[in-house]
Every structure is written in C-alpha cells, then in structure tokens.
Amino acid sequence: MKKLPHPAIYALLYFPFGAMGGFVAVAMTFLATKNGLTITEGALFGAVQLAISWMKWTWAPVVDVTLTPKRWYHIATSTSAVAVIGLASFPINQENMPLLLAMVAAGAVVNSIVGMAVEAIMAHATPETEQGRASGWFQVGNLGGSGVGGGLGLIMLEGLPWPWLAGVIMGASFLLCGIGLRWLPDTPRHEVEGGVRGALRKVGRDIADMGRSKGGLLAAILCFSPVGTGAAAGVLTQAAVAAEWGAGANEVATIQGTVAGVIMALGCLVGGYACDRMRPRTAYAVFGLLLGLVAVGMAYSPRTVAMFVGWSMVYNFGVGLAYAAFTATVLNAMGTGSAATKYNLYASISNFPIWWLGLLLAWTADPTQNAVATAPWLGGLAAMVDRHLGHTPHDMLILEALIGVVGVSVFFVMSRVVGRSRLPDSVAT
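^ thats the sequence. predicted structure below, dont judge the formating
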C-alpha cells in the first residue's frame, strides 16, 4: 500500500468542486442583479445548484459499483471544465435565464461526481484518528475553491475582453488538479457476487447498517437541521444586498474571493483540529451557534463598507469551522463501505436546509417581495416572516440566527432520545 500523503492533497483534488460552485453562487449571482434581475431571480442560480446537490445521492451508487474513483475523477473534471466554459460564454440576462439555469443544473450533475470520487478515496484512506485533520483540508478545497472560483471568476468575467476566457482559465485549472491522484492508493469498486445488481444490494445493506447506529442516525438528524449552513453568504453576494452597506463588485470579490478563501481555509483547519479533540457532531452544533451570533452582530452593525467586509470575513471563518465539522461528523458516522453513496446521502440531506433557507433568506432580504402570495412555495414560513419581520438584509440575518438556534435545540433533544436507545454506537467498518 502506498504511503499516505499529507491530507492537503484532498484540498487540491476537491478544488474543482468548490470552484465550480463558487463561480455560479458568487460570480454569476452578483452579475444577475447588476444586469437587471431581481434578488429572488439571482438566487435561482444557487438554488438550482443546491437542488442538484440535494438529489445527488441517487446517482452516487454509480461511482461505487462501476469504474474506480480515480477514473470517475478524470471523467468528471473534464466535463466540469466544459460546463464552466459554457456558463461563461452567455450574457446573464432575462432572455438567457432558461438556458443558463439548464446549464447550471447540468454542470452541477457532472461536478458532483468530482466530489464523490474524492470522498470515496478519502473514506478508505483516512484512519479514524486523522478524520478531523483530513476533513479540514478537504473543506479547504471546497470553500477555498469556492472563494477562488467566485472572486477570481467575477474579476475575470468583468475584466477580460471575452468572458468565455474566464471559463477556459477555470476549466484548465480543474484538469491540473488531477495530478494529485498519483500520490493516493487505488480505491476499488464493489466486487461482489451478482455483478452490478449484487453490488447495488451491498450498497443498500451498507446504508441500512449506518442508519441503525446511533452515530449514523444522529449525524442524519444534524445534517437535516438548518445549522451551520452559511446560507446568508449567497444572499450577501448580490449587488442589491451588498449596496445596503455601500459595497460593490470589488468588496464582493474580496469577501467571496481569494482573501475569503484563505479565511475559510483557516476556519476549516481550526475546525478539523477541534474535531480530532471532541466529538465532531458536538463541534458541528457549537459552530452553528457561533455562526448565528455572527449574523446577529452583522445585522446590528453600522452600514459601512468596512463593516460589510469585516463581518463577512468573520462569517466566512465560521462557515469554515462548520463545514470541516460536517465532514468529520460524516466520516465518523459512515464507515468505509459504499463510501461515495453514504457520504452523498448525508451531503444531500445537509444541502436541503441550505437550499430552502437560502431561498427564504433571499426572499426576506428582497424589498420587492412584500406579500405571502409572492412566495407560495415557502408556505407557513413566508407567512411567519411577513408577520414578524420585514424585508431587509437586517431581517434576513436575524432570521438565519433564530432558525439556527431552533435547529441546535432540536438536535440536542434528539441526542438524548437516541442516546437512550439500544442501537450500536457506530457502524461496523
């Protein structure tokens, strides 16, 4: 077996996944409102991407039962490069919205396989004592990549003579990341009696075993809760929201660009370090509460550019903490069997609250959405916001903090209930 490299290798390999997400959620979202779309319309880019992430567990078994993770990685990074070139080639306006949203969805599908391949390799190659450290570096690639893809992508889309060049540069960087695979051991696909059908049955048994353990069940409950989502970040990148603090394209590129990537990376490393010294799911809940405190602080801060940048950076650090704790929680709960499928089940569960909370926060911050009838898909939540909050960025931040506190409270109640059950503590590996 190959000697395992420093876990920083996972940051390199996961970079294409994070950068593609950042390009859509930051660069394209900012330009949406700048080009005349509403805040709610701009939020659709991130919402479509998250909706695909929510469903990706349905095709994750393909990675477990067909090609090896390394082969899937090369296929997925190549198709993701083509996708980002396509997204950079069309102006962001009302006329192109249907095409752009379809391209975002297709790009998110192929890019999700980049993540699945890395997750499968990491689950097999990481000893339990190193799960927090590996999780931190893994999320450095995700959030740091998002910062680079968002900030640098925005600068290139606005500054290059031909916007498609931004996609070419981004796509080329995706392909270069594959060099990191040479230092990692090969991870086999399922080889069981009965071919692909038998392998799929093995995937089903692995998932069932995970769900029948305390760690697996509590991790699922926590991932389903709107805790540590960082959902406000996507709304804060929109031009109309940033303008509340007097911020423009340069400031948004800063809070979601390379500098932000460094801040989030530091948060990931600190969060991973903490998860090697305390139970990861407890750390996840604590970090979620800290993010809520930051949101409240930003809500009541003076409306100046310096405050926008400062609080956003603190928020980014908190997102790094929470995301590292999420990955450590999942690795600790799932074992090694059917790793791509199990990790993406948890990721899909966790993306659901990011998806609906992101839409709710965008709607709450949008002064044009002043009636429940404009957002029937939010149902009772929309009615409650209309009754007790207004439609400003301040109200959006307060709402995120309140929902996070409720989520953590529910998790700790369920921890006591599940802790008293006769379920095994963890899944057999």
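The CA atoms of residues 229 and 354 lie 6 Å apart.
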